[in-house]
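Bit of a strange request maybe. I'm writing a small parser for structure token strings and I need a real example to test against, not something I typed by hand. Could someone generate the tokens for this chain?
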Amino acid sequence: MSTDETESAVYLTIKRELRLEILIWGIIGLLGATFAILQVVEKGEKGDPGNDGVSPSAESVAAAMAANGALDDLLGRKVSVAYGLGPIDKRDSGNIEGRVLRFEVGKDDAWVRFLYTDNFRVTRPTDDGNDAVPRACRWELLVDGKSCSPESIVLDKHGFDNEHDPGAVVGYCRLAKGQHIVTVNVDPHPSDKFENVKNNCHTGWSNSSWVIEAEESNGFDVLIEGASSNQ
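Reply from user aminoacidic:
Good idea to test on real output. This should exercise your parser:
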């Protein structure tokens, strides 16, 4: 073996030994820190048991809300919510009563995610004796009275019997900065097969709960049909 090869071998051996020594000391340091933390925990004083049945102060609530808002900003979440218990709406066409959300978008050309949950029913009218044809209705979220872009947010339901079922729909809209309003519209399903039959649409049941959410994207990639937009 040449002198250069011998020196390289010695260098590699020393380098391995140094790495091993650093690793060992790192583990020792970690164990020491863990032991110190456990000692502090074991020797800590007993905390204040608190006051049973006392509501939190306005200051503590405000501080918690501020912390939650800061966390939402960090995580990129800005959520507006409307919810309620009923009322039942039996209309077959038009805007559903009470299902309204007003919200604000903080920047231009922003992606907003919508969620709508409710109770839905479709059946034939009592004055229609044609039991052989299913009935269908379509519920749609409208933003400022218009369908969402790039795609409409709709929930379709068909049926024969008087069945009230919970349901939900989620979708995305691209919106301008400023104030907006979301409403829920119902109409007979646009399919040709339901064109000449009566549809009995029913929204809500026995004051069941409904929710509308609007969540503005803030720093996350939104992928729509293969086109990524970092909003």
